């Protein structure tokens, strides 16, 4: 809790008209290092958390499998709901900057229980992503070392489960330690890794397009403007499947907002950084999607993007054909850099969400512990690291299929808490929407439309996931992805109910009052 704050002192304001609280945040000073991140740093954090190179190598194949040559159109369509939700984040942060973001804003708009579930959705999604990032980083680390040394034995080390799991745990521990020390201690590391990613993507795209245009490639296809038309996708089910993957590719840009209490100009800078990050990402994705499709085509054999043997790791298959040896190692290095950078920065949203939830007494007080020197949510960061390692190791020992199904269910979590945040914006500002056309558009119409689109994807994904054919199998005749996704939400509801009985203050509205937007701060 806020050091030096008198016991029972409220930090209050009026809904829709709160002043810029600077680095203190909507909930009062939580002990974070205010003013330590500027606009460039916020943009780098947003791009780094999304991990564009990692996302592309993991989703190019499955997206082509779902929608064929319409992959660039689906990437563009996935940008639309993210952009609309970004407006909601920007406006809510401008009015009430708080590192709890979705949790805090949904609680203020719809009440404590809805806010708690939004926080739960973000937390679970982050832990799943962190575990997958560590797994991908490990795989490409050994591929890169094998490429550099010319040793097939080193490249195949990842196939040994004991070696793989040990490396994953070590990577998670290293990322946890770096996040524990804070972003300012490693900002140049992040700048370098993000710069490397974007440079390699630009190089890859330029060479791929050049070689495709020059001819002589057996699988290459010529560019067509119809690739950018989402209306040409075969079915709505295929479109939502591709869109769910596309939404996953943009997930993480809101890290800019969870750093708002540590950012210079906390009311405006995080929102601007989020917009710049989104534009950078959609530009990169469209460029690589078009280039890869022109070079490799969408066939199901050879280097074709629809080849099921390479669908989950497209860059591993295209590195040598596009860049040649020894430059192919750059693409492996970029994937490792992407996963490693994101592995560190992805701890930011989950740790700061748990910090905010603790400040409002929605989770145990230990999660609100801030390191006196590094000014980071130390306990929450370590807890997230331990949960990630336990989750990945446990799921891997049970079955690799369970890990993959959990990743497929991730889209449900993302749509769930993003949609709640979008609806929270429209409802929170409902009394001020007539103030100006700008407020009506950016605080009402855009967030509401974004929430509706994400809800549609959520419901369609649930419908599709009910089938045993969606994912690796079925439980009592119901698709395993549906069981995992709904099970995670029900587990959150059960934990919320239990903690509401143990410490009911937050759930009775005593620590976060909707009428006065007040936090009662303890010493």
UniProtKB/TrEMBL annotation:
<feature type="transmembrane region" description="Helical">
    <location>
        <begin position="329"/>
        <end position="355"/>
    </location>
</feature>
<feature type="transmembrane region" description="Helical">
    <location>
        <begin position="441"/>
        <end position="462"/>
    </location>
</feature>
<keyword id="KW-1003">Cell membrane</keyword>
<feature type="region of interest" description="Disordered">
    <location>
        <begin position="1"/>
        <end position="29"/>
    </location>
</feature>
<dbReference type="Pfam" id="PF13520">
    <property type="entry name" value="AA_permease_2"/>
</dbReference>
<dbReference type="InterPro" id="IPR002293">
    <property type="entry name" value="AA/rel_permease1"/>
</dbReference>
<feature type="transmembrane region" description="Helical">
    <location>
        <begin position="118"/>
        <end position="142"/>
    </location>
</feature>
<feature type="transmembrane region" description="Helical">
    <location>
        <begin position="67"/>
        <end position="89"/>
    </location>
</feature>
<feature type="transmembrane region" description="Helical">
    <location>
        <begin position="376"/>
        <end position="395"/>
    </location>
</feature>
<protein>
    <submittedName>
        <fullName>APC family permease</fullName>
    </submittedName>
</protein>
<dbReference type="GO" id="GO:0022857">
    <property type="term" value="F:transmembrane transporter activity"/>
</dbReference>
<dbReference type="InterPro" id="IPR050367">
    <property type="entry name" value="APC_superfamily"/>
</dbReference>
<keyword id="KW-0472">Membrane</keyword>
<feature type="transmembrane region" description="Helical">
    <location>
        <begin position="162"/>
        <end position="180"/>
    </location>
</feature>
<feature type="transmembrane region" description="Helical">
    <location>
        <begin position="233"/>
        <end position="253"/>
    </location>
</feature>
<feature type="transmembrane region" description="Helical">
    <location>
        <begin position="274"/>
        <end position="296"/>
    </location>
</feature>
<feature type="transmembrane region" description="Helical">
    <location>
        <begin position="474"/>
        <end position="499"/>
    </location>
</feature>
<keyword id="KW-0812">Transmembrane</keyword>
<dbReference type="GO" id="GO:0005886">
    <property type="term" value="C:plasma membrane"/>
</dbReference>
<feature type="transmembrane region" description="Helical">
    <location>
        <begin position="407"/>
        <end position="429"/>
    </location>
</feature>
<keyword id="KW-1133">Transmembrane helix</keyword>
<feature type="transmembrane region" description="Helical">
    <location>
        <begin position="37"/>
        <end position="61"/>
    </location>
</feature>
<feature type="transmembrane region" description="Helical">
    <location>
        <begin position="192"/>
        <end position="213"/>
    </location>
</feature>
